[in-house]
Amino acid sequence: MDCAPMTLLATADLPGTGGTFRSQGDDVQCEEVPCSAPGGDGKHWWVQVAKQDLSTQQCRQAIARAVAVPVELVACAGNRDRRGRCLQWFSIPQEAVEHPQGLRNAGFQSKVKVRQVIAAVKAIDVVGVERLRWRARIRGIGGNDGYRKATAILDALRRTGLPNYIHPSAFGEDGGLARWGHLLLAGKRLPEAVVRSGTSPGRCLWAAQAEIFNRYVTARLAEGLLGRALPGDRVQTARGEEWLVEDVAHAQKRLDSWESLVLGPLFGEGMKPAAGVAAEREAALLAALALDPRAVARLHGDRRPIRVQPTKTLCDIEGKDLVICCDLPVDAYIGVLMQEVVKETAVAEVSKPRRLTVRKTERPSEDDD
User: Fold this and answer.
1) What is the pLDDT of residue 142?
2) Strand-pair category, 129-139 with 75-76
3) Do 325 and 134 touch, CB atoms closer than 8 A?
4) Largest Cα–Cα distance of the chain, in whole Å?
5) Cross-strand pairs, 256
6) Which residues contact 265 (CB under 8 A, 6 or more apart)?
7) What is the pLDDT of residue 1?
8) What's the count of helices (H) and strands (E) in the chain, helices before strands?
9) DSSP H stretches of helix in the chain
10) CA 233, CA 261: separation in Å to the nearest integer?
11) CA gap 167, 151 in Å, rounded
12) Which helix (H) or strand (E) is 263 found in, with range?
């Protein structure tokens, strides 16, 4: 099973900038953009922190210690990268905090700095953050040529969309995790050396599931169908409503205006089915991989947009470097966008692959440790 990283780019016809993109330190920064600004006479404190080289869970613990409450009371909207610099929101019930000023003193080895403490009506949760605002530095190409190339690529991606690949970092070194996941799906056992290494079967299964999704995206991109509606496609609106495409012309208008997105398959139990031509394509993909639908049913299924739109894109020259700014949905990878811009085969990803804990057939939870 060949599980090499994706190589098909949406902007393959445009030259890349080259240069060096690193995923550590201040070269990559992100900021959570809430769906609505916190405020009002609510019953929760929202705490915005700047963190670097620290996981989301460690940050939760630091906030809990600052006001002497159980860490379970500190809510967040998901795990964010621990290597780059991130502005992230947390919340805590007001009734649990005796002295709110203590929230401003939360810290962890100087890796956490509290920016704001604001009263809010409700707690932060996974649907409370609309997008992530990214700032990424490409070193060594700060001239006009790099600026022109990056601007052309970002303009094209804003018009036609960025393939919403799951970054190959999720597949392990040289795609090893995905290959082992395919072994498990084929009913075989993991190699003894893999078992001894402590690699969990769940992590391997998630890698295989993600790699199959990327194959689906690649196939649609190769056929010019990334932004096209097919009969039976499952589509999601900006409000989260889902529907099956029956009137292709009507659906295409909504895709063209970015009112809706086509959802691709993360095969497994619970994945809502497609229909018609779209369902046939999904079945053909499993058949081409010699996967029995009953085998993938052991996974926790879901659907994921096959393309996303970078918004608020901006390029800026800073000395010898080029800085890229944009907004992306929370489940998109900045490393995938930077691969389009830099046009190099090995672009370090800012987010590590999900760490998985096996619980029968369910996809384990995400962790950014």
Assistant:
1) 85
2) unpaired
3) yes
4) 61
5) none
6) 212, 213, 216, 271, 274, 282, 285, 301, 303
7) 53
8) 9, 15
9) 56-66, 144-160, 176-185, 192-196, 201-222, 248-256, 276-288, 293-296, 334-342
10) 10
11) 23
12) strand 260-266
Would the CA dihedral through 354, 7, 306, 158 be positive or negative? positive
- Compute the chain's Rg from CA coordinates: 21
List, for residues 92-101, the tens digit of each pLDDT value.
Answer: 999 999 888 8
Angle between helices 144-160 and 334-342 (to 10 degrees): 130
- Residue 131 tokens read as 């997008």
The whole-angstrom separation of Cα 24 and Cα 296 is 35
Helices 201-222, 176-185: axis angle to 10 degrees equals 100
Residue among 162, 262, 172, 267 nearest 212 (CA): 267
**Could you report how far apart the first and last alpha carbons of the chain are, in Å?**
29
Q: Which two tokens stand for residue 97?
A: 């905090």
Residues in the chain: 369
What CA–CA distance (Å, rounded) separates 112 from 187? 45
How far apart, in whole angstroms, are the C-alpha atoms of residue 207 and residue 137? 28
pLDDT above 70 covers a percentage of the chain that reads 91
- What is the per-residue pLDDT across 316-368, written as a single tens digit (0 to 9) for each? 999 999 999 999 999 999 999 999 999 975 444 444 333 333 333 334 434 44
* Confidence tier at 67 by pLDDT (50, 70, 90): very high
Task: Round to whole Å and give the CA distance between 361 and 209.
Answer: 12
Q: Which pLDDT belongs to residue 313?
A: 97
Strand 84-93 and strand 25-34: the pairing is parallel
Tokens of 6: 């994706």
Instruction: Choose among 126, 150, 127, 128: nearest CA to 137.
Output: 150
What are the pLDDT digits (tens) for 181-204? 999 999 999 988 888 888 899 999
In tens, the pLDDT along 348-359 reads 444 433 333 333
Q: Which amino acid makes up residue 121?
A: V
CB 233 within 8 A of CB 278: yes
Tokens of 19: 């240069």
Calpha distance 27→338 (Å, rounded) = 12
